[in-house]
User: Fold these one by one.
Assistant:
Number 1:
Amino acid sequence: MPIVSMQKVTKDYHLGKTIVNALKGVDLRVEKGEFICIAGPSGSGKTTLLNLIGCLDKPTSGKVFLDEDDVERLNDNQLSRLRAERIGFIFQSFNLIPVLSALENTEYPLLLKGVARQSRKKKVLAMLEEVELANFAGHRPDQLSGGQRQRVAIARALVTDPEIILADEPTANLDSKTGETIVELMKKINEEMNSTFIFSTHDSMVMKYAHRLIHLQDGRIA
């Protein structure tokens, strides 16, 4: 049973009177533990595809399954719980809370889940150690470099032990050397934890790390 399955998925957006066909009949299967890259130029549908897998949006037609769950049949509360418990998100703009430290940003998803304080601290410190930021636990985002901020974002995405980690252009705001270090870190975590990573990029350096490369062109898998 694949961890993600998409069957003839389409997604349309309405811009005034214009209909934009972002995805056009996409079929995709992702197995547990894969490290998959969704590649393609800007406007090809990469972010839309990740948003559908992440249950941030629903398809116009077709089916999206996470394990055996048909996403379309889940109500808003069930979708929120699924995102909180089974999916981790890494964004190109980091999306950290400016007034919180690295430790507090990483801890935040566990607070939302009501995890006990002692368990939270232990888990967060272990995660910051994993991303080599234990010595920066008390630093706020404005006291960290771009690469360090993205490491905090990775720690935050992984702290809930999600089955799937979605990363939308995770190296877009980083220089090439830092970007490669971040992808190597993601790959290391993928191998150590058997977490499923699905990330988008148009950076050829990032693509070379993928188990499997899926090219999107004008909303279709090429």
Number 2:
Amino acid sequence: MRYHLISLFPESTTSYLNESILARAQENKLISFHYYNPRSFVKPTKAQKDKNKPYLQVDDKAYGGGPGMVIKALPIAKAIEKALKFATKKKDFTKELIVFLSPSGEQFTNTSATKMAQKFSDIIFICGRYEGIDARVKKMFKMKDYSVGPFVTTGGELPAMIMIDSISRQIEGVLGKFASREESRDASKDVYTRPETVEFNGKKYPVPQILLSGNHKKIEGWRIDRKGGTNSK
């Protein structure tokens, strides 16, 4: 799986995507990340060549008024175009998905993640900022609006990372043992490890006795109950 992130702040994602399981998946060539900064697709104006203005302008005031700035369509379109050219050059290219991250998009779920992992070889994430991206970019390319929840984040980078993490788990080999995915087995929302009793501030917190019983059938039932949200002990 090749992930393409179109972002004004790509460095905001690397601290997470290049660590732990996702880092190992990259080393094993199961996934890869490719970044496209819209600023790379605009030419500096005379004013922007000033040393005190190092960032190339990719936004402007919204038509119709209102607070905040809107990211222009062309820098995003050119970034998408470059990502698509990179994708189609790959021999194992099958199909790409362009994701437009929006609070009003379709709710992303674990089912969505599984389908994406099975269907696509390249996923392009458009990470908006400020008041959003000029809507005309949606007319230039076929894309799908997705939301990771009923809330608004400062930018699209965090939702993109949530989706990438969830999708990557569905790729065989990323987690080491494919069967270790919690959603594919009876896994309790509560887990315990050694020691058998933890002492903190003068109080003892023991492991539920059923987990020490050795009765695997009862333990499995307990996990199913816990997964369902009951208060079995």
Number 3:
Amino acid sequence: MEIARHSRNVAAGLGVGAAAGFMAWAVRGRASSVFGPSLWRGNRGQRSLALTFDDGPSEGTPKILEILERYAVPATFFQIGANVARLPGIARAVRDAGHSVGNHTYHHRLACFRSRSFLEQELSTAQSVIEAATGRKPQWFRAPYGVRWFGLRDALDRLGLDAVMWTVIGYDWKRPAGAVVNRVAAQVSNGAILCLHDGRELGRNPDIRATLDAVRHLVPMLLDRGFRFESLEQLLCQTN
């Protein structure tokens, strides 16, 4: 009822076409705050970046940790609760390596057209599972597919989570490493939040070779360009 009423009100004020465009932006626009605050980049005046990974932990995550350790680069891993429940040791390895762990829901399902109770349960269950496995309560949340919906703001407030989108996404789950590197290298800028994937949704033993190869090339390349990698905590505290 609430969704239908809101849609009718928007359509009445803007017209059907404009209303559809507005809703598309509201749901997935990186700067949209319709369904809750959205952090998508840091300070443009600082030559800093934040590297983030979604959909883990997976069996391939330790290989990413090795690359990051080689270059002393911090990252934030937005973990799916079901993957944490399956691979708690790898989730702890991310923590032990000094990286931040974020909430990426429990089942990695689209939020749109879901009930408030569904969103609350997805976030709260993931929060509990991640904290039980790592000993840390996530501060950051990223919506699966970047899709937000009604009820998300309240869930975030109750759980003390801050929603984070991205400045540049690599499409590493479907593109070869070279294309991922070229895309990120062309779009990166001061304060950017980069989004890659150390898992493939709920897949077991996912093929993340493209991601691994992309990270091997991107990290030294961006360091050579004079960028500094920071945690989300460091990057976003400089936003203002």
